[in-house]
Design a protein that fits this description.
CATH topology: Rossmann fold
Radius of gyration: 14 Å
Strand order of the largest sheet: 2-1-3-4-5
CATH superfamily: Response regulator
Structural class: alpha/beta
CATH architecture: 3-Layer(aba) Sandwich
Number of strands: 5
Order of helices and strands: EHEHEHEHEH
Distance between the termini: 21 Å
Number of helices: 5
CATH class: Alpha Beta
Number of domains: 1
Helix content: 40-55%
């Protein structure tokens, strides 16, 4: 993980989904300054700058739910409990279509819940729309 200013923090433990997401972002010229965390602990270490000087917050977090060491739900709760990250946009991007995951994500403060499309073209299109909205159209909080 790099400590450069991130526009996107991608929290994804599946190498294939990570590469697919990064490829889709590159395809739409949105892959600059993406930081990848491969589990929930790495994500929080980056956001809360454990052991380093304070990292600038990303514009958006793309958060998988099924992560090793700490679930996406736990990451989301920790982000919402901290004053510095409370208003950080978090998009749950996961393969889960379980009603309980959807409800728990929104109750914990997710800004959006998107199920990863299985089809490559649909996935690329979904990632482009996510990036376009959160990096271009959305007026986020000033950190």
């Amino acid at each position: 993980m790099s400590s450069t200013a991130a526009r996107i923090l991608l929290v994804e433990d599946n190498p294939d989904d990570e590469e697919l997401t990064l490829r889709a972002l590159r395809h739409h010229q949105m892959a600059e300054n993406v930081v990848v965390a491969r589990d929930g602990v790495e994500a929080l270490d980056f956001l809360f700058s454990k052991g380093t000087e304070l990292n600038p917050l990303p514009h958006v977090v793309l958060l998988d739910l099924n992560l090793p060491r700490m679930s996406g739900h736990e990451v989301l709760k920790a982000v919402r409990e901290d004053d510095r990250t409370r208003s950080l946009p978090v998009v749950v991007l996961t393969s889960s279509n379980e009603e309980s995951d959807i409800q728990n994500s929104y109750r914990s403060g997710a800004n959006s819940y998107i199920r990863k499309p299985v089809d490559y073209r649909q996935f690329v299109d979904a990632v482009e729309k996510i990036g376009s909205y959160w990096l271009t159209l959305n007026q986020g909080p000033i950190h």
